[in-house]
Amino acid sequence: MYLRYSYRVYPTVGQRQALSRTFGCARVVYNDALVLRKADRSRIPTGVLAKSVITDAKKTDARSWLGSVSVDALQSSIRDLDTAYRNFFDSKSGKRAGRPVGLPRFKSRKDSRQSLRFSRNGFRIRGNGKLNLARIGDVRVKWSRALPADPSSVTIVLDPSGRYFASFVVDVEPDHLAELDTEIGIDLGLTTYAVCSDGTVIDNPRFLRKAERKLKAAQRALSRKAKGSKNRAKARRKVARAHAKVADTRMDWLHKQTTRLIRETQVIYLEDLNVRGLARTRLAKSVHDAGWSTFRRLLEEKAARYGRDVGVIGRYEPTSQVCSACGVLDGPKPLGIRTWACGACGTSHDRDLNAARNILAAGRADRLNACGGPVGPGVAIPRRARPVETGTHRNAGRTGCKPRAADAAGIPVLQRGEDVNGKGQSCQYLDPSAPL
Ligand SMILES: [Zn+2]
Description:
It is a single chain. The chain is of the alpha+beta class. It has helices spanning 13-39, 46-58, 71-93, 207-223, 230-264, 275-278, 284-290, 292-306, 351-370; strands at residues 2-10, 114-119, 123-125, 131-133, 137-142, 153-158, 164-171, 183-188, 192-196, 201-203, 267-271, 309-313, 339-341, 348-350. It has a seven-stranded antiparallel β-sheet. Strands 10-9-8-11-12 form a five-stranded mixed β-sheet. It has a two-stranded antiparallel sheet with strand order 13-14. Helix 1 crosses helix 2 and helix 4 packs antiparallel against helix 5 (230-264). The longest helix is centred in the middle third of the chain and has 35 residues, at 230-264.
């Protein structure tokens, strides 16, 4: 399975200039290619596209500066456009699950998040631990943990708060933990973050709510600055930094919670929440702050990696209306009622704990209906990260090619099974402007 490993990188002033030049060129190439594909409804082969917007364009006066940056990054940019179109068509034909994907759009110089990607040909990790990027140089990396395998590509990201990250794609074998016989149902909420059917309660940390005053002050300061001024740019970065802090803290917390749950439980059942629907209500801010979708995604990814299962029960299961002790349907109850006593058997219930128990029961029933035997994986193995790119060099994808990155001096290679340490396992970069 493919995972992303992100690290903070610290380019020098000169390297930052070179990076921003490369961001710009990759964007221009992407937009030029998009113009061509929009004009010609037939699908232009990527090679032809690359020739006209990179190789031929370099020879013209208007695009001669494309020669000053890494061609590998430019080619990756065209492949991104290809992927964007494929996602759009797959989404249209129903081959791709999830919410509908729109047509690719033009990139802008003013986009708050800039990124570019290097394939195998465009980067290498030096023996001294520095990351060499084509036409950029040796960039200092903070190796916060070891890379588990030789990376197949790296994406350099500049986030709105001015930080640079290198996000590596690595192909790792699933690392199944010893099987347990524990099963839980989890009821997600806003008053308490989660209540498990075994009675454990996870409090809602409300990171955004706690930071709201600081954020408001930063935003107010920003709104007072003159448009286009340097002070405005500075104030904008301050707002972005405040948002990034909230998003980072939330992500860290979510990673810790999900890792713990996956380690302790064999099968986890969740309710299929209509997060997008709830986010349109009065509760929007709190719903986004909770990050339920990320919670579920992390659980599913980690379950696939560590040999656990996540089952999701239907959205319309009346989990809060049924008595978990005798099964009587007791009718809907307003949200304000936290505890109630069953009219049939007299058991007194905590609303959330009762729901969690019902989720567990519904999940078990689903499973028995589905196969009657051992648990099948609750979800397909997530393939979030981009698959291996072999690059264009003839020997790039050949087997027997010496791995040149992970075991380089200074970057210890992890042994399998070592990585379950409570830290983020599939540390995907979280865009602070999109809290879910
Ligand atoms: Zn009852």
